[in-house]
Amino acid sequence: MDLTSDHPFWTLKNGLLADFPPLASDQSCDIIVLGAGITGACVAEALTADGHDVIIVDACDVGHGSTSASTALLQYEVDTHLIDLIKLHGPDHARMAYQACYESIDILEEKIRSLGLEDCAFTRKPSVYLASVKGHVPILREESEARRAIGIEVEDWGESDVKSLLGFSRPGALCSAQAAEVDAYRLTIGLLKTVARRGGRIFDRTRVTRLDIDKSGVLVRTDRSSTIRAKRVIVAMGYQTQTLFDTASCVNLQSSFAAASEPLEEYQRWWKSCLLWESARPYFYLRTEAGGRAIMGGEDVPFRNATARDKLIPRKSARLADRFNGMFPESGMEISHSWAGTFGETHDGLAFIGPYRKHPLCLFALGFGGNGITYSVTAAEILRQEVRGHRHDYSPVFHFDRR
């Protein structure tokens, strides 16, 4: 499955930041991480920090799967409102889900600082969740009360606040201070280089074809006639997981679309260059990037196949531009790059992290949903404890059996 269309913005902007070889000979290690996107990189960094001998394998160039297509808005809000998660799973489970995502932004910022990865353009920004229509305002007010009840500060904006601060009209909004943006591809490469400096081995352009479990542990076979022997496997392959494991029932695949503008003049920026996203579905969301461009995305549709998805890019890109220009009609914004990617939705908007009873010696880090990077950080923390033989407090929130 092609996870992205050709030429996502981040790989064009950055070029090829690192070279890793394919797996040409048999290897052995403590832990194999399948997938060298942002999730695999976060997990491998945490494991090598604990001293584990780790090998990472990816079927394509590292960071060139879903990571390269991510618009990389870092928000604690999940695709399901807190008030709806409470109805689905109860107040404790819902509270921990939101707290895990909230804390992950702080964890990631500290990791970037401590590892010297500031070139990934991690930047704190407020996040503004817009009520697209008047009927959504009561829902947003109920949502803000629920968040404050669990200790998350959020501001309620009225129509006049939106107009005065952002310059366009919406009937209301929620403003959260806990949010950020990042260059996910550059962050991934930085984490992988850290792993390599610690002795981790990284192989790309190597597809895993089979995984066997025996009394000695796990044997991974590849399309290059090479194998890896390990004590256990961590699966961070995202939507490609179902090619090896029976996880298709866990996720519904969606096609999402994104575009980057030509650089905007400073006077055309909006309030604090905040992250903007709307309550209407399909989503529309918006951020800036270090070069002065606006990055926008959404217009999701169910995934059929990569060809059908990519044919929609011109139409969806035009639609994203229309939605931007509807907010900022005097901006003169022009699209410079557009692309598409495939992502997964779960029934409750939460990731699947941890053991899956059908696959012994395997742990999963499947950051399905709109919060892929915050889930990646959370997965690294949960699985690090799992490998240590401990249970993380947030493990039950993302367990496969929560359904």
Automatic annotation (TrEMBL):
Q: Looking at the UniProt record for this protein, which Gene Ontology cellular component terms does it annotate, in alphabetical order?
A: cytoplasm
Pfam families assigned: DAO
Domain FAD dependent oxidoreductase intervals: 30-384
Please give the name of this protein: FAD-binding oxidoreductase
Organism this protein belongs to: Luteolibacter yonseiensis
- PANTHER family annotated for this entry? PUTATIBE OXIDOREDUCTASE, SARCOSINE DEHYDROGENASE-RELATED
Gene3D superfamilies from the entry?
D-Amino Acid Oxidase, subunit A, domain 2 (3.30.9.10), FAD/NAD(P)-binding domain (3.50.50.60)
